[in-house]
């Protein structure tokens, strides 16, 4: 596949999303990511440990160490992926949000689609 010229947008093969999840630990994020990739709900999972979060929960200010999990998936799989994260997650109300991707490196975007082809 030839590369586009400088400044030329890279179109998506189909609508894709990046899903942002916080987890209680690196181990939990790894477990979630592994399950979602094996189940082909995500093409890839990146775990970023050592995040410090500040939030209010049940009337109390909380500061805690967490890990971030970034997942790449087709947009049509987001609802099922979110359901699965919630089912596997240790939190009562986990942070799971999806962001639409607008551009990217075409071969990588195609790879996301290929890796998740048998899901949903």
Task: Walk me through the topology.
Elements: E1 16-23, H1 26-38, E2 44-57, E3 60-74, H2 78-88, E4 96-100, H3 106-115
Antiparallel strand pairs: 1-3, 1-4, 2-3
Give your account of this protein's structure.
The protein has 120 residues and is α+β, with helices and mostly antiparallel strands. It has one domain (16-102): Alpha-Beta Plaits (2-Layer Sandwich), CATH 3.30.70. It is built from three helices and four strands. The protein has helices at 26-38, 78-88, 106-115; strands at residues 16-23, 44-57, 60-74, 96-100. It has a four-stranded antiparallel β-sheet. Strand 2 (44-57) and strand 3 form a beta hairpin. The radius of gyration is 16 Å and the shape is elongated. The relative contact order is 0.30. The model has no long low-confidence stretch (mean pLDDT 91).
Helical/strand content category: alpha+beta
Q: Regions with pLDDT < 50 over 5+ consecutive residues?
A: none
Please report the total strand number as a whole number: 4
Overall average residue pLDDT:
91
**Helix coverage percent:** 25-40%
Rg result: 16 Å
CATH topology: Alpha-Beta Plaits
| Largest sheet: spatial strand order | 2-3-1-4
SSE ordering: EHEEHEH
In terms of quaternary structure, the protein is single chain
CATH architecture: 2-Layer Sandwich
The backbone outline, from C-alpha atoms, is elongated
Please, how many helices? 3
Largest sheet: 4 strands, antiparallel
Cα distance, first to last residue? 28 Å
Q: How many domains, in number, for the residues?
A: 1
- In percent terms, what proportion of residues is strand? 35-45%
- Provide the CATH top-level class: Alpha Beta
